[in-house]
Write a structure and sequence with these properties.
alpha/beta, 15 strands, binds 1,4-dihydronicotinamide adenine dinucleotide, S-Ado-L-homoCys_hydrolase_CS
């Protein structure tokens, strides 16, 4: 049974509802269930203490229970203040065999609508295990858990927290305050935690970007597997997942008719491609903005107008950022938009839309409409509707990607955890992607559920192509 203090969720009485949805999701997550069948008996994650920082949704609940079925102990926080599904969090804490009065599942620290100090408190709770231990594995999405360990160890090495700067974001100030408290207790907690970590498996483009930066600067403290760049992750979750959940978020937030409207998608990478396709599917006239000539050309070839934001800001109805960049939509842009233009971000962090700049303006007031929907009224009479305070709208305003696509992503996560935990010596500090045969395995696990009949190479054909009948079928540089 879990101790009362060893989790924090909104409401354990939601567990029964969460459990029903978990059971429905399991059927839609054939990859994870196949991994449970394959590895359940040998329990390769026995001895693993996994700290997870990833949107606490129903799909993530199936991932968590897959990791425990493979022998891991797990502690979990969400990687976004709005993305937790409270019934999922409750069901994971209660566990399949517990009750709300006697929870017997996994310690989760997550609820929908955390403040920033609460968010970082939750992240700290999942990194500090009972008995003064730390995790030996991290499963991260966006890199916040990894960042906290690295910042903490850096501060302990320096013996001081960097002085506050008036230009620091509110969030950075929260992190510094947390580290200052740790330093005052003088237990070198983050240095010890960092030393105990065998590795991290990272879910998303933005987190992977942070890892490669640390690798280049020589500051990375433990090996990492880049799950995002498995083909069965980024070319599926980022693209087809967003194709599904962008529209879901827009509809639940505003229910504004999309057909006939002009919708702008900033960024035509994997996420942007899915977003543009789904908006077009609803009958919107879609305009793409890009900085990369290759992606701009792709968008044009796919039939989208490619323009700068300045060109369309005054005439478009819906604006979506999907770049992983910052200040893509500025407060000046919003000042120049049509009345009741909808502005949302589907990239990982909230700085794609300059929310801080918007809040600082004197000619605008924020009028909350409902949770995660705000009308920002300008003095000239027009207003814009900003979704999820600029945080990823598909998880803030809706329930994120559906189970089937997440089964692909999370099968990669599970395999990456097994790889790093059981074959640690094969991965010196650095950033790695999974080998292609494992990527192909993840895809294979999902074919049957869709009735896909795969053609098998003959021996003659295989030798003609110079590949094995059982794969891998493409060289590593192939781009899909
Ligand atoms: P990507 O790198 O494939 O695509 C981003 C694109 O934005 C690139 O083509 C880049 O050239 C373009 N770009 C960068 N700065 C720009 C600017 N100032 N204006 C216009 N275009 C610009 O990355 P991906 O995989 O599409 O991910 C994008 C973001 O979405 C990341 O932050 C990622 O972590 C996040 N993500 C969110 C998901 C969700 O469910 N909400 C799911 C998967 C990824």
């Amino acid at each position: 049974t879990l101790a009362a203090g060893d989790f924090k969720v909104a409401d354990l009485s939601l567990a029964a509802f969460g459990r029903k949805e978990i059971e429905l999701a399991e059927h839609e997550m054939p990859g994870l269930m196949a991994l449970r069948r394959e590895y359940g008996p040998s329990r390769p994650l026995r001895g693993a203490r996994v700290t997870g920082s990833l949107h606490m949704t129903i799909q993530t609940a199936v991932l968590i229970e897959t990791l425990t079925a493979l022998g891991a102990r797990v502690r979990w926080a969400s990687c976004n203040i709005f993305s937790t599904q409270d019934h999922a969090a409750a069901a994971v804490v209660v566990g399949p065999d517990g009750t709300p009065d006697a929870p017997a599942g996994v310690p989760v620290y997550a609820w929908k609508g955390e403040s920033l100090p609460e968010y970082w408190w939750c992240t700290e709770q999942v990194l500090r295990w009972p008995g003064g231990e730390g995790p030996n594995m991290i499963l991260d999405d966006g890199g916040d858990a990894t960042l906290l360990v690295h910042k903490g160890a850096e501060v302990e090495k320096l013996g001081a927290v960097p002085a506050a700067d008036p230009d620091d974001s509110e969030e950075y100030a929260v992190i510094l305050a947390l580290l200052r408290r740790g330093l005052a207790e003088d237990d070198r907690r983050w240095t010890r935690i960092a030393a105990g970590i065998k590795g991290v498996t990272e879910e998303t483009t933005t987190g992977v970007h942070r890892l490669y930066e640390m690798q280049q600067q020589g500051t990375l403290l433990f090996p990492a597997i880049n799950v995002n760049d498995s083909v069965t992750k980024s070319k599926f979750d980022n693209r087809y997942g967003c194709r599904h959940s962008l529209i879901d978020g827009l509809n639940r937030a505003t229910d504004v008719l999309i057909g006939g409207k002009v919708a702008v998608v900033c960024g035509y990478g994997d996420v942007g491609k899915g977003c543009a396709e789904s908006l077009r599917g609803q009958g919107a006239r879609v305009v793409v903005t890009e900085i990369d000539p290759i992606c701009a050309l792709q968008a044009a070839m796919d039939g989208f107008q490619v323009a700068t934001l300045a060109d369309v800001v005054a005439t478009a109805d819906i604006f979506i950022t999907a770049t992983g960049c910052l200040n893509v939509i500025t407060s000046e842009h919003m000042a120049g938009m049509k009345h009741q233009a909808v502005v949302g971000n589907i990239g990982h962090f909230d700085n794609e839309i300059d929310m801080a700049g918007l809040a600082r303006r004197r000619d605008v007031t924020r009028v909350p409409v409902k949770p995660q929907v705000d009308e920002w009224r300008f003095a000239d009479g027009h207003s814009v509707l900003v979704l999820s305070e600029g945080r990823l709208l598909n998880l803030g305003n809706a329930t994120g990607h559906p189970s089937f696509v997440m089964s692909n992503s999370f099968s990669n996560q599970t395999i990456a955890q097994i790889e790093l935990f059981t074959r640690t010596e094969a991965y010196p500090v650095g950033v790695y992607v999974l080998p292609k045969y494992l990527d192909e395995k993840v895809a294979r696990l999902h074919l049957g559920a869709l009735g896909v009949q795969l053609t098998e190479l003959t021996k003659e054909q295989a030798s003609y192509l110079g590949i094995a009948v059982e794969g891998p079928y493409k060289p590593d540089h192939y781009r899909y």
